[in-house]
Amino acid sequence: MKRSLLVLAVLALAMTLVLSGCQKKVSETIKIGVAGAHSGDLASYGLPSVNAAKLVIEDINAKGGINGRMLELFIEDDQCKPELATNTASKLVSNNVIAVIGHICSGATKSALGIYKDSKIVTISPSATNPPLTQSGEYPNFMRTIAPDDAQAKLAATFIKEKLGLKKLAVLHDKGDYGKGFAELVKESAEAMGIEVALFEGVNPGAPDYSAVVNKIGNAGVDGVVWGGYHPEASKLVQQMKDKGMNLPFISDDGVKDNTFIEVAGKYADGVYATGPTDTSTNPMAIKAVADHKAKFGDEPGAFFLNAYAATVAVVNAIQKAGGTDYDAIVKALRSEYVDTPIGKISFDAKGDVIGFGFSVYQVQNGKYVELK
To answer: Which whole number is the average pLDDT over 148-161?
Structure first.
């Protein structure tokens, strides 16, 4: 009798372990990474993406997750530095994420993409605009919810010619993948339109003084300046130019179309032009996303928030359409399905570029960026 009871006890224990294992497999979370600059000078570009992903994931989990599985975020900081991005990517791979929202800067994105590609991890950036990231065909796992720099640069050059009527430019950049890439594309488009580029030069990011290049701008006799890069350098250039009495039109990119630039540059920011994602603030999903951000985090969302929100929504929708976390099925869904997002109804083309969203030109007026129609 005791032997029979022992056998039954062992069988019961075995069944409990089996059921427990099955339950663990069913309830295992779907892991999604968020990578970007979450500290340092460019944190204002990366932290909004973290908040966007949190809001989307919390909403999905509150509704029961996907097929009964909760979503879990893994957040890693690369400070927008390529040398840190590889480590960031490796950490996310080791955490078994099936998708990454990020990275933020093009150089960091490029450094990380090979790691994600080898691990078959879908990567959607809200802000990395360097054209080769999609146009080279090297990264079939990469997509973005922002138009590439060739579209941004052409818009900037067209605005310079048709709206500002400039004829002679100084084009500066920060020597990085993003900044230099944008500058080269503006130069190419401007020259094709008959605009002279009298000065094309890179500067060292983080330098305390740019008086040497400001003097070159003055000596070149230009009637406008284009900057390819981010807001820390742009704010110094604008201030030093105006302190020398150079009230030239200053045109930049979405790396400057951020309220942090206005805060840092202060009164010198007024009048600056920058290209940036088209304003979709009247979109009902955008209105709700912004309201949810204010309610949860207590302030206005920052740069690329809506793009990151859209990227997270697109990933979640693809997982739902794929019926699971299979890489090929998710990629297929992203490229064949349209999804409603705060930036509009979007999908992705065969290269990974967003379909249904583009750029506009903005100007700082009375301390705020205003979209120019």
So the answer is: 97
